[in-house]
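We modelled the chain as a single entity of 652 amino acids. Its sequence is:
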Amino acid sequence: MSQRRDRWDRRDRRDWRDRGDRRDRNRATALFIVFVAISVAAGLVTLLSDEPGAATGAVTKGSGLQNSNEVPALGWGGETLLEPEDMLEDLEYLSSVVRQVHPAMSGRSLQGRAAAEEFAARVEAAKVELSEPLPSWRFFALVSAVMVSLGDAHTCVWLPGTAGVLPVQLTWAEDGVVVSGVFDPDLLVRPGDELVTLGGRTPQQLLEELCAWVPHGNLYWVKALAGRYLASPLVLKGLGLVSARGHAGAAPGCEVEEASGREEVVQREEIVQMVVRRAADAAGNGGVLAVDVPIWDELTVTGIVSGTDPATGRGADSPAAEAGVKPGDRVLAADGATVHSADDLARAVQRCGQEGRALALEVLRRGERLEFSIRPMPRFAQGPGRTGSTETAYVIGVTLGGVPVSGERERPWFGWTVDGSAGFGLFWLDECSNTREYRRAVDEFFAAVRKDGVERVAVDLRRNGGGDSMVAGAFLKYLPYTYGDLRAPSRSTRRSPQLARQRGPWLRLLTWLGETFFNGRWLPHPIQPRARASELFRGEVYVLTSWHSFSAAVDFAAILQDNRLARVIGAPTGGTPTEYGDTLSFSMPNTGWRFSVSTTWFVRPDPARDPADALYPDIHIPTTVQDIREGRDPVLEWLRSRSPQALSVTAP
């Protein structure tokens, strides 16, 4: 009897285990089905939404500065007068959107409440000044100051277009400011000159004043954008850097004066006084030089050849220089068609390059029309590696208005090179777009690294202004971390009617599911793709950063640094590792100016490292004025000069 009872007990226990196993399998199956459904819905949202990265998994954080080309230019130097009622309506619209959308305005944190109070105070202070018509540059200064109060570089008013531009490009370095481009060949200023004053202000004074114009989370981001802001007459006038000189001749900004009983057209040419220091040349010529730099019509800048650079890595001269093109030539036509912009010339260069024929280029030089026959050359034909191009880009080696003319951008937004003899591989990523082509390039990069036995790799994010934060996954695939131990950034989104309209109603559900079940993490670790164990890279990994590294690029670097998977080298980032982001964009009703507002609070993988106003490198390698003058890259030089034995394999 007891044996029978034991048999029944064992059978009951077995049945109970079987039922439990079935319940576990059913539960796992149900969870898998739910996850697949969520993934499909997320994919549909991504496809149907107005902006990329709208789904929970794909986080598009946006960039901190946009140039608005969708609205008319503001007139010569931003002198367009705006009516008080129009400015007030624009300001109230901006204020209303920020209060409804920005996470700081929810009042859930002490920091957010302080930012909200400062924002409200700035809005009221701006309203006081809107009692009379103001020039557009003054109103832009007011709304910029309102946005700066949030301490959020993503929430900003886009820099509007104007009818003029300063034909000198300035770049901030660790130890000063250097002239990195000159678009007017008649100017006495040269690339490599060090800025002493601009409009009577020292670089330090300029930086302090720009802090009221540039929304930022740290001073490095202001330095990164300073050159772009100081090229705009809108900002130059707002800072009081512009003066005028008059001479005969009709041009933008001219006035009609009556002298001796007759009318005379007198041009009020707007200038910015610049003092530079020039390094002594071989003959000992150098010293301090004062120059009046005129504000140019933007079309004038675009049409002037400002440089003839090799651009192809083949020889000392560019194809254009070998043909006889010189800086200062005004481009009139290319391949039989009139050139109105740098894009027109780039398309002609690309077309002739693809068809294997010479480009007919017509220029104007001191009143004389000249024609040249130039053979376009491949931009990235030299050296091993791969770029993000889907086709070969052709160049003739000229810069037009400071912009390299190419069938593609100066360089594709991603690419790589592997030097087996030096045991070093470099992957550059200039924007965060998680495309199939990008992920395939990462696979090919690590395949080449394995093939050549490379022991050191680096990912260069120094030009990367952000985008989709999921790009880090392609690299994590090849790094030796343990499932469950990898710390990922977290996020918390403030839901609003504007978010639902721009991203779709399903986003609210997907965001809630992601924040509830995945603790705000962007991607559950078990579904992160992994390479086979034999394909994992176990050598030294470096991340290159600069003041221009921002938003999702900072997330990329923070994931690797906080998980001790890589060393960060270079300069501190312009973005902060814990910050607001994932922006929505809007237009003011009257000026049409575009502005962006953050919707999400992002926290770095290792919050114990906060508070931090930037992602600081493990090894700081500054770029100096002399580096820029001589075209040196001190970060890459440092990497290539280190033998594997000289570097510690263990990340800090």
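As a brief sanity check on the tokenised model: The first strand starts at residue 67 and ends at 68. Residues 310 and 318 are 4 Å apart (CA to CA).
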